[in-house]
């Protein structure tokens, strides 16, 4: 117990304030570190999206050598398999629909899943959604979908061809491919001149990557400051000697 004159301040109060301040400051510092990590991630994504594309074979070579090729631009040529075509639920500009994905037999790197683009729900069975025949050449962005879904995302229904998250391993099985035939990545096609309206390439939207760590850090530090000020005022008043009004009441 801290005492001054006839007033006292319990150790329980002191310990509680110190522990609470330590927690708040630690949370703020953790958010600062997360901010640095998120800014580095966004910078890496931007660099990948603006770099010249490499061949898919070169990208996969780097991948097998342990390099992170997420968000790397690649050039791919080959032929689509007519079936299966996967439908992955998506929303574009407020319109519900599906990302159409198919297996591309590439000329130089084996089979790979390609996200051809988005079609509204009403067009999913129309000719605009059909897998093109003949040779194709495209530029796309590699995404490594590591088989994890969000907490409230529905389960995929492979039998009904309704996919709500990119489970590439299950897609391999649905396509009748051995696990080693298709790497755990998807090439998301980028839009090219002369493309039809549908399927529409959705690209990679950096604004969709949340980066609120600075606001969170400021909030935690501000709470720590408010707590420190309130604790100081309380302690000062508690430890201060009786004022004249107290003397008069005592008389």
Write the layout of secondary structure elements.
Elements: E1 2-4, E2 7-9, H1 11-50, E3 54-55, H2 56-64, E4 73-92, E5 95-106, E6 111-120, E7 135-143, H3 168-174, E8 186-189, H4 213-239, H5 244-250
Parallel strand pairs: 3-4, 6-8
Antiparallel strand pairs: 1-2, 4-5, 4-7, 5-6, 7-8
Helix pairs in contact: 1-4
Briefly, what is this?
This protein has 251 residues and is of the alpha+beta class. It has helices at residues 11-50, 56-64, 168-174, 213-239, 244-250; strands at residues 2-4, 7-9, 54-55, 73-92, 95-106, 111-120, 135-143, 186-189.
Verbal overview:
- This protein is of the alpha+beta class.
- The protein folds into 2 domains: 71 residues; 132 residues.
- Helices cover 36% and strands 25% of the residues.
- It has 5 helices and 8 strands.
- The strands form 2 sheets. The chain has a 5-stranded mixed barrel.
- Strand 5 and strand 6 form a beta hairpin.
- Helix 1 packs antiparallel against helix 4.
- It is elongated, with a radius of gyration of 29 Å.
- It starts with a strand and ends with a helix.
- The mean pLDDT is 83.
